Amino acid sequence: MTNKSILLILLFSGTVLLWAGNPATDILSENSKIRQKAVIALGKKSDDRSVDLLIQALQDSVYEVRVASIHSLGKTKNRHAIAPLLSFLNEYAGWEERRAVEEAIQKIVGNTCPNELLDGAHHEKSDARKLAIEVIGKCKTQNIVPLLFEAIHDSISGVREAALSALAARKEPWIADSLIAAIPSMSSNGRIIFTLREMNKVELLLRNAKNSNDTIRSGVLHVLQEMEDPRIEPIMLQALKDSSAMVRAQAVYGLNLQNNSKVTNVLLEMYNDTSAMVRRAVVEQITGWREIPGRHPILIKALSDTDVEVRGKTVEFFSQTKDSSVTLPMIALLADRAKYRYDYIREYVVKYLAENGDQRAESAMMEALTDSSVSVRRCAAEFMGRRKVLGAVAPLMDFLASDDKYIRKEGALSLTLIDDTTGLRALVPVLRDENREVRAAAASGLKTHRITLKEADEYYLMIAACDRQEVDAHWQEIRTQLIRDISNPSKVYYAVSALMWIGNASVIPQMIQIMDAQDETLIPNTYLNSGNLELRKAAESWCNKRGYYVESTNSGVNTLGSWGE
Questions:
Q1: What are the pLDDT digits (tens) for 253-308?
Q2: Residue 324 per-residue DSSP state
Q3: CA 467, CA 44: separation in Å to the nearest integer?
Q4: What is the mean pLDDT of residues 47-68?
Q5: Any residues with CB less than 8 A from the CB of 26 and at least 6 apart, and which?
Q6: CA within 20 to 30 Å of 4's CA: 22, 175, 294, 317, which one?
Q7: Sign of the CA dihedral 178, 179, 184, 187?
Q8: Would you kindly state where each structural domain of the chain is located, as residue ranges?
Q9: Are 254 and 284 in contact (CB under 8 A)?
Q10: Residues 106, 70: contact at Cβ < 8 Å?
């Protein structure tokens, strides 16, 4: 071989080496593409130096580099990468990154459970603990079981669920026993009960129905409710006599009332239990079925129960019926504020009374017009409208001045139904309400009863009723009226809102001219929030000329501020 040939070979080899690059240095490049290629190349090695560089790359600012480093760490199968991979997980990690971390750790551990993975079950980050438990749960070795039982008490529900799922998948017969024994120590046993149900250990559950621990007996009955076995019903009936109210309540929930008069009678008798928890369970059971013979007297009695939840559940049930026999007890519930001070009970009561419209409720519903609850006041107003109670006109007129748009709307609707001249006249100013639904309710009442209005109010009625045909027919008169109202502080907001709804752009120059002729901030502030770009720009120009600045609130409302403030 000539010297020239050797020289060419050496030059070619050097070029190849230069083109291939050095991953250890390229990983520090400012070019993210080069860094990404470097971490991919490092994944083909497994030495400690390469692993350390890949671990550092987990903190790269570029997403693609981070994901590439995760995949490369998985390919190295180096156990020292497990802890950094788990630490990488946090609330900011994306779904792709989380999946990549899981796949990488699974490649590293295979079917084993090294100490580095077991340590992850105690990681300070909950996402890391959850993933570690999920991977650990796939191991078949016995040494992981105590760790899984420890994890079912974790403060994070996701970790607890991962541990319980892993335990449910195991074959050791004693695990179900241990799960049952763990019920009393669980802060929330709902998931453990679901796990036991998945395991379908009927024999074991039946044995533990007489466990010495109250919480275990209750939990077992909870699981048995969802199972089908002829031995379950006698156990539920026997548990109705349990010394623990919690167990008796679960037994009530576990009774099967389908075509079973004996069980139904026993259930109704359980309402006489001294525990409110049991009585709540009885009421929930008998109101959850379409019809249960003999329940009506029990429910009437439950309306005056000492327990607020029993009363509330019963009132909720009757509020969905047309049963007029409970009108008087319902009225008593609404009137007795000292004893029945809970808003949701009064709300159910007035809903029932409003829909049934019984005259006997008028006095109590009149008081309800001033109740602290918005829902109660609205239902009381609805009652007065349906009953056409003239005595309610004055308080309903007060509704029209409320800060709550729903109260104003309900007041307008009820006054329309009552059809009293004084009440209907009170709807005229409401035609300029800031809320479109309230304006529409007032317009409907005035049009329905053909109330004679002033010319200006007729225009407001057309707009409030969204009568486009009438508005177009009277556009010039309406335009003159609304332009005049822009200069009125009490009418400017509505006038601008009405003009924006009408949408005739020819009025914009005149609106700007009115603003420019004044120094008060009300008009420009209204224009800023009008939704019209031309008016907004004009208002911003007005601000700049007069030393104001525009700032936006979190709710998107624009306000003016002075540079001198």
A1: 999 887 788 899 999 999 999 999 999 999 999 998 777 888 999 999 999 898 98
A2: G
A3: 75
A4: 90
A5: 34, 35, 37, 38, 41
A6: 22
A7: positive
A8: 490-565
A9: no
A10: no
